[in-house]
Amino acid sequence: xxxxxxxAGLEQLKELINMGAAQGIGVGALLGMTAxxxxxxxxxxxxxxxxRFANPLGTVHGGILSTLLDSAMSCAVHTxxxxxxxxxxxxxxxxxxxxxxxxxxxxxxxxxxxHAGRRVATAEGRITDANGKLVAHGTATCMVxxxxxxx
Length: 151
Prior knowledge:
- The chain is an alpha+beta fold and about 150 residues long.
- It has helices at about 10-25, 25-30, 60-80; strands spanning about 35-40, 40-45, 85-95, 105-115, 120-130, 135-145.
- It has one domain (about 10-145): Roll (Thiol Ester Dehydrase, Chain A), CATH 3.10.129.10.
- Helix content is about 25%, strand content about 35%.
- Keywords: Hydrolase.
C-alpha cells in the first residue's frame, strides 16, 4: 500500500535517475531534465529550454511542458510506493498560463502527492520560470499496481 513514509519507491527513483543520467537513457536524459529535489511525496525537476523544444511560434512546445509536469507528478507518486509496486499515469490535465520563451532561462517543475491510495494516487504540479512566475500547472491521476505476491 502506498504511503508517504515508505522509502522503497524514493530509493528506487534515486537509483533510476542516477543510472539514467549516467547512461543517457530515458525521457529525462533525452530532454536534459535534472532532479533538483527528491523527497517523500515531492519531486522537483529542472529543465533548460532550447531551440529543440520550439513550437512553430518560437516558444517552448506545450508537449515539453506536459512531459515535464507528467514526469514530476508521477515521480512524486513513485516516491510513495512500497518495494515491488508500480504505477502508470491514467489522466493528465495541464493548464498553460503563459508562453515560455526559448531564451527565458531555466524552468523548475514541482510535483507533489495529493492522495496516495492502494490503487489510485493523485498529484499536482507547477512549472515556474527563471523569475519564479507560474507558466503551467496540472494534475495527474495514477493507477497503482501492488507488489506481486509469490503464489
